[in-house]
Structure to design on (661 residues):
């Protein structure tokens, strides 16, 4: 029987799963390795170079002065700790806001209002980042809406936490919403059936089951906050975060900027390892 | 309050042979027959929007019995179970447990436990933690908790599985964990929502006899929801047959099978022949609806006279269906209508049975096996 080349190719691919996988994944894998891991490698490499103080030219001399500088200079330490504190604060605020919101959306609201709420939560994602940050600048400024309603904290760390919490909230709500929606009714019924009151069911059954989603959301809010440098410029007053230090070093001292940007990367890697370990502990 | 209720209830059912007189009708009391009603439903209806899932159900379940609620899907049997458990509140009517009105009580204040259709095990807890959950919630001391959990796991033959995750268990094992998790609380009533539905046939038969044995030994009232009539007939002390949100008949398996009250029961519980109208008038001598079970019908050579206590109807075999152990003969009657007669393949093999197609026969069955049906309202 005659078979067309396309059919023969399809047949060959069907018989060899390895070949199929190679054909499918080689392009995206190449992109990942070259563009993503490659740039990270260059970043790490350049952190070990140095800059000529007079000419601001990068000198390709292998040394660890940049890292020694970060560890010894109290300014870097303060900025790093402040950045970490803001990222933790944003994550806690978003978690506290998103848990009841996602619970209500997924398990209480009727289908119609559920759709409206989903749109409402995701709508800010469609607007530009700067628009939203400046909107908060307007609200937080003296004489602004917030000042008029409850009083404004002014521009500074609290303003940064508020604005970043607003910006990253959808990234916390959406995974939690999916997790709450997937909770089987029968598991909640079973808990009540075994004598647990609602609060006990929430603590012992609901929270452990949505924990992976909570952690997933917190990875977003935490890492996005660590890397941010625009919001803090707009509503942070004189506050500096690691992103600002990197941005100001980039033109004058590229290796130093590279070394500083290793700090949030390390913090995120540390956080990922930490949540992986707690997950492992829970599953023992 | 629930703890108090538990002590009373266990006194009634288990130890002293001493009966609390509650929910017992005054007529029975006067006769001196004390039957304890563990679950009493009075005029219970449940509407979901415009749909009446349960429509005016009255039900009395006796202490210590294996009570099945049998019906097709959507007949309201699971909703009734959920009303007893407290997951739903009835639109009208009351639910009593051991004589106490619990209609408005939430599930966590009721002395019943449920085995769910999908098992509903907690995926983040080990088998042991699942079984201990109810005891932990009730703050049972650790030593007692551990020994009771071990005992419950032993009852369902899962001693070695305490530290496994539910995800690492087969369907049958999960089913046993769900059972142990409910039994460990020593409820006065155990509710089972099609617990064997997801198991394959062999495992299902095994679990049927095990469940029955556990029920006998623990002397717990079992309320068992199923759509499988064989399961209901073989396991139950009494069966309630549900249809369209109502109960068509309540009785022992033999009563429900041998004396079906309505055409629905006759058709749903086992297979049945319906004899009605002109055919009934010609064969039985009166109009009306009657049911005859296929296995009660004898197939005789043409011209044979029936015995004195029998009804006879001549006809012709229209089709023969060979089914291994039995053969079904579909017979067109001279009086009109078609009856199915069932015969064990004791003396004939399949080929021989199939050769009877087209033959003239006389069907005969005992008059007492003709059951008059009342039309359900």
């Amino acid at each position: 029987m005659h078979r067309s080349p396309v059919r023969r190719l399809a047949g060959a691919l069907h018989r060899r799963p390895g070949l199929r996988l190679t054909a499918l994944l080689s392009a995206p894998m190449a992109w990942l390795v070259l563009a993503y891991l490659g740039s990270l490698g260059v970043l790490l490499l350049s952190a070990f170079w140095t800059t000529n103080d007079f000419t601001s030219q990068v000198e390709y001399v292998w040394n660890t002065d940049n890292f020694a500088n970060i560890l010894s200079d109290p300014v870097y330490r303060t900025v790093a700790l402040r950045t970490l504190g803001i990222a933790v604060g944003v994550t806690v605020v978003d978690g506290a806001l998103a848990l009841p919101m996602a619970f209500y959306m997924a398990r209480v609201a009727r289908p119609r209002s559920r759709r409206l709420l989903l749109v409402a939560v995701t709508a800010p994602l469609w607007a530009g980042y700067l628009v939203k940050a400046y909107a908060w600048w307007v609200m937080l400024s003296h004489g602004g809406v917030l000042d008029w309603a409850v009083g404004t904290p002014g521009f500074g760390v609290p303003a940064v936490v508020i604005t970043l919490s607003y910006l990253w909230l959808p990234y916390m709500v959406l995974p939690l919403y999916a997790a709450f929606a997937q909770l089987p009714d029968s598991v909640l019924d079973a808990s009540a059936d075994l004598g647990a009151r609602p609060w006990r069911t929430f603590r012992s059954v609901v929270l452990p089951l949505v924990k992976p989603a909570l952690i997933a959301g917190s990875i977003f809010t935490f890492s996005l906050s660590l890397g941010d440098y625009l919001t803090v410029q707009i509503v942070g007053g004189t506050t500096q975060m690691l992103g600002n230090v990197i941005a100001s070093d980039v033109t004058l001292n590229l290796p130093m900027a590279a070394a500083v940007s290793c700090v949030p990367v390390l913090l995120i890697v540390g956080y990922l390892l930490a949540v992986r370990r707690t997950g492992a502990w829970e599953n023992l | 309050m629930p703890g108090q209720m538990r002590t009373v209830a266990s006194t009634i059912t288990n130890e002293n042979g001493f009966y609390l007189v509650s929910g017992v009708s005054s007529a029975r009391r006067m006769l001196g027959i004390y039957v304890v009603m563990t679950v009493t439903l009075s005029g219970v209806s449940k509407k979901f929007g415009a749909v009446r899932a349960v429509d005016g159900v009255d039900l009395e379940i006796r202490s210590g019995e294996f009570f099945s609620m049998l019906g097709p899907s959507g007949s309201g049997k699971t909703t009734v179970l959920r009303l007893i458990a407290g997951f739903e509140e009835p639109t009208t009517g009351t639910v009593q447990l051991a004589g106490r009105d619990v209609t408005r009580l939430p599930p966590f204040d009721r002395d019943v436990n449920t085995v769910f259709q999908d098992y509903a095990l907690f995926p983040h807890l080990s088998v042991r933690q699942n079984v201990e959950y109810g005891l932990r919630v009730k703050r049972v001391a650790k030593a007692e908790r551990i020994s009771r959990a071990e005992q419950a796991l032993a009852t369902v033959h899962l001693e070695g599985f305490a530290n496994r995750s539910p995800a690492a268990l087969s369907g049958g094992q999960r089913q046993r964990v769900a059972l142990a998790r409910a039994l460990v609380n020593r409820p006065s009533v155990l509710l089972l929502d099609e617990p064997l539905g997801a198991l394959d046939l062999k495992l299902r038969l095994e679990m049927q006899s095990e469940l029955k044995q556990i029920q006998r030994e623990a002397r717990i009232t079992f309320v068992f929801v199923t759509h499988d009539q064989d399961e209901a007939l073989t396991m139950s002390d009494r069966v309630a047959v549900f249809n369209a949100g109502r109960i068509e008949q309540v009785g022992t398996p033999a009563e429900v099978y041998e004396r079906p009250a309505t055409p629905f029961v006759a058709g749903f519980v086992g297979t049945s022949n319906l004899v009605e109208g002109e055919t009934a008038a010609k064969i039985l001598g009166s109009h009306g609806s009657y049911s005859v079970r296929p296995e009660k019908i004898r197939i005789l050579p043409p011209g044979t006279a029936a015995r004195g206590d029998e009804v006879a109807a001549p006809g012709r075999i229209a089709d023969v269906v060979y089914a291994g152990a039995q053969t079904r003969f579909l017979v067109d009657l001279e009086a009109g209508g078609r009856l199915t007669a069932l015969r064990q393949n004791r003396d004939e093999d399949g080929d021989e049975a199939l050769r009877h197609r087209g033959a003239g026969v006389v069907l005969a069955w005992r008059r007492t096996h003709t059951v008059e049906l009342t039309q359900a309202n």
The longest strand of chain A covers residues 50-51. Confidence is low (pLDDT under 50) at residues 280-284 of chain A. Chain A has two domains: 5-39, 72-283. The radius of gyration of chain A is 25 Å.
